[in-house]
Amino acid sequence: MTPSFVSRPSFAARHAGVLRRLPWLVLAVLALFPLLAPLFGVEYYVGFMRRVMIVAIAAASLNFILGYGGMAALGHAGFIGVGAYTVVALVEAGVASAWLAWGCALVGGGVFAALIGAVSLRTRGVYFIMITLAFAQMLYYLAVSLRTYGGDDGYGLYTPLTLGAGFDTAHPQLFYWVVLALAALVFAVFSRVAHARYGHALRGIRDNETRMVALGYPVYRLKLAGFVAAGAVAGLAGGLLASHNAFVSPGLMHWTQSALLLVMVMLGGAGRRWGAALGVALWLTLEEALKMYTDYWHWPLGLLLLLIVFHAQQGLAGLFGSRAQADVGGQGADVAGEVDGAAQERAGSAEA
Amino acid sequence: MDFIFVFEQVLNGLGYGLMLFLIAAGLTLVFGIMDTMNLAHGSLYMAGAYIAARVHESSGSFAGAVLLAVLLTVVVAVVLEALIIRHLYRRDHLVQVLATFGIILIADDAVKAIWGVAPLLASTPAALAGPIEVFPGLPYPAYRLLLIAAGLLVALGLYALVHGTRIGMLVRAGASNRQMAEFMGVRVGAVFAFVFALGAALAALAGAMMAPISAVQIGMGEAILIPALVVIVIGGIGSIRGAFVAALLVGLVDTAGRAFLPPALRAVLPPALAAELGPALAGIAMYVLMAAVLALKPAGLFPARA
Fold first, then answer.
1. Cys-Cys crosslink for A253: which of A81, A168, B225, B277, Cβ 3.0 to 4.6 Å?
2. Which of A65, A85, A126, A286 to mutate to test binding with chain B, by most B CBs within 10 Å of its CB?
3. Domains and CATH numbers, chain A
4. pTM score, whole prediction
5. Taking the alpha carbons of A259, A262, A264, A267 in that order, is the dihedral positive or negative?
C-alpha cells in the first residue's frame, strides 16, 4: 500500500453540484409536502413541519448574531414572546388581519431588541450572556403578571386571522405556504446580508473587535443593527408561533427556551448558512420521534449534546460542508476557508 | 404595615438569601477558577432536595437525611467532574452551556425515572414544626430560624476555609489568576475537583434544607439557577464575599418586592393597574438590581480578578 500525500477531497468538494442544488430541491419538496401528505396519510406532519419552519426562522435570527456577530444572547426567546404577545394584544383590540398582526410582531421585536441591545451591547463575554438572560426574565415576569392576557394561564387565540382574499390561518395548506415563503425569505436575506459588506464587517467584529475599532468601524452601531434585525425576525417568528399554536403563554419566554434555541443553533453549526435549519429540524424531529416511544425523551437529547460537544465541534453542518463552502460561499476558497475555520473555533465565543 | 410584619419579611429575606448563597458559592468558585459556566449546578441542588426528602420520609431522621443527601450528591458530582466537566475547562462558554444543558436534560429524566413525575411533599422535622416566639408578638417558624442559623454557620465556615486555610489560599490564588497560580506550581486541576465537590455539597445542603419549605419537583434546579447566577454576577464572579453580600441583597430585595411593592402601589395607583403591576415589578426587582449594578460596576461589587 503506497502512502498518499494528496489529501482526499472533502465531502463538499466531491458533491459540489448536488449540494448547490440541494436547497432548491428541499424547497420544492417542502412546497409540495402539504399536497402529498394526504396521499400517504401523514397530514399530521404538515402542522409539525410548519412548527419546524417557524422555529427555524427564530433560530436563523439567533444564528445571524451568534454565528456571524459573535453575540451569545441567552435571551432570544424574549423577543419571540414579544412578537407573540403583540399578536395577542392586537387580537384583543379587534385586529383581524394576519399581515398587520405579524408586521407589528416584527416591529415589536425590533423595538424591544433596540432597547435591550442598547444596554446589553455595552457588556462583554459572560456578562453579555447574563444581561440578555436578565432582560428576557423581566419580559417573562411581565407576561406572567399581565392578567388581561391570561397571565400564567396563557391566552387562547380562538379566531383565525385573515390572510386576505377570503382565506385565513385555519386553512392548513395556505398558512403552511405562507410560513414556508417567509422562512425562505428570511434565510435568503440573512445569507445575502452575511456576504455583503455589512456581513463581512460583522464577522470582522466577531473575530477581532479591537482591530475593527482601530479601522474606524462604528462597532457598537453595527452590532446594535444586527441585534435589532435579529430581534425583529424573532418577533415575527413569535407572531407566527402564536397563530400556529392558537395559544400564547409566558412559557414561550422561559429561559430554557432561550437555551434550547442556542442549543439548536450550535447543534446545526453556528455561523453556517444552513446551521440553524439543520439544528432545528434534527432537534424537533428527534423530540417528536422519541416522544412516540417513551416518556423519557430528554436524556437521549442530552446525550446527543454531549456527543456534539466532544465529537463534532463544528455542529452538523460542519460534518458535511468543507470550511470554505460553509460560510464564505466559495470565494477565494483557500484563504477564506482558513479564516472561516479559525473563526469557527471561536464562533459565538463569549470572548469573541 | 407594622414593625412586626417588616421584621418578619426581613427574616424571610435573610433565609432565602442565605440559601441562595449556598448555591451561588459553588457556582462562583467554579466560574471564577476554571472560567466554566455550569448550568447543571441546579441539578445538584435538585438531587440534594430529592434524596433528603425521601430519606427523611423513610427513616424519620432529618439530620441523617441531610447528611446522606450531601454525601450522595458529592459522589455524583465527583463522577460528573471526572467524566465531563473536567474536559470543558478550556472550551468556550457557549460549548459549556451546550454540554451542561445536556446534563440538565439527563438529570431531569434520571430524577423522573427514580422518583416519578409527581412533586414530593417533604415534611419539616417534627421537633421544629411549631413556631418560636422571637420576641413578644412575633411567632416565627422554628424551621426557618434553623435555616438562617445553618446558613450563617456554613457561610462562616466557608469564609474560614477560604481565608484561613492552605487549600483556601490555593482556591483564592486560582480565582484571582489561574495561569499565575499554575505557573507557581499549584495543581489547579486538583484544586478545581475539590472546589467542584465542595460546591456540590453546598448546593445539596441548600436543596435538602429548602425541601420542606419549597416544592420538590423536576425543574426546581432550573428555577433556582437563574437567581443564583444573578447573585454571582452582582457579587463579582469568583468572589465568595461578593456572593455573600449579593445573595443577602437579592434575598432581601426579592422578598421585600413581593411583600411591600403591591400594597405600596395600591396606595398610589388605581387598584386594577396596581394588581397587574405589583407582581410584575416584584418579579423583576432582582433583575433591575443586577442591571443597575452592572451599569455602575461592570465586573460586579467585589471583582475577584485584579
1. A81
2. A126
3. 41-346 (1.10.3470)
4. 0.84
5. negative
Rounded CA separation A221/A74 (Å) = 20
State the smallest CA–CA distance between residue A302 and chain B in angstroms.
4
User: Measured between CB atoms, does B31 come within 8 Å of chain A?
Assistant: yes
**How high is the pLDDT of residue B294?**
81
CA distance B65 to B71: 10
The pLDDT tens digits for B229-261 are 899 989 988 888 899 999 999 999 999 888 888
Q: Which residues pair with A156 in a beta bridge?
A: A247
Between the CA of residue A64 and those of A230, A231, A232, A308, what are the distances in Å? 7, 10, 12, 21
Structural fold of domain B3-296: ABC transporter involved in vitamin B12 uptake, BtuC (1.10.3470)
Provide the 3-class DSSP secondary structure of residue A275: helix
Q: Which residues contact A40 (CB under 8 A, 6 or more apart)?
A: none
Pairs of residues, one from chain A and one from chain B, whose beta carbons lie less than 8 Å apart: 133
Task: Retrieve residue B63's grid coordinates.
Answer: 439530620
pLDDT of the residue at B48: 94
How far, CA to CA in Å, does B156 sit from each of A210, A298, B22, B94, B151? Answer: 43, 39, 11, 34, 9
Contact (Cβ atoms closer than 8 angstroms) between residue B31 and residue B241:
no
The angle that helices A219-245 and A197-207 make with each other, rounded to 10 degrees, is: 110
Can you give the pLDDT at residue A327?
Answer: 43
Q: What is the mean pLDDT of residues B81-87?
A: 89
With 0-12 CB in 10 A as exposed, 13-18 as middle and 19+ as buried, what is B176? middle
**Three-state DSSP class for A118?**
helix
Assess B296–A contact: CB distance below 8 Å, yes or no.
no
Q: Which residue, chain included where needed, has cell 416544592?
A: B215
Complex-level ipTM: 0.83
Question: Mean pLDDT over all residues of chain B?
Answer: 86
Residues B286 and B292: their CA atoms lie apart, in Å, by 10
Q: Locate the domains of chain B by residue range.
A: 3-296
Helix ranges (H only) for B116-219 are 142-164, 166-176, 178-183, 188-210
pLDDT at B78 over 70: yes
Say if the Cβ atoms of A141 and B283 lie within 8 Å.
yes
- Write out residues 218-277 of B within 8 Å (CB-CB) of A: 222, 226, 229-230, 233, 237, 275-277
Chain B residue with CA closest to A131: the answer is B291
Q: Which residues contact A53 (CB under 8 A, 6 or more apart)?
A: A30, A179, A180, A183
Angle between helices A16-40 and A44-63 (to 10 degrees): 150
> What mean pLDDT do residues B107-111 have?
92
pLDDT above 80 for B129: no
**pLDDT confidence bin for B306, thresholds 50/70/90:** very low
Number of H helices, E strands in chain B: 11, 2
Nearest chain A alpha carbon to B285 = A138
pLDDT of A323 above 50: no
Amino acid identity of A255?
W
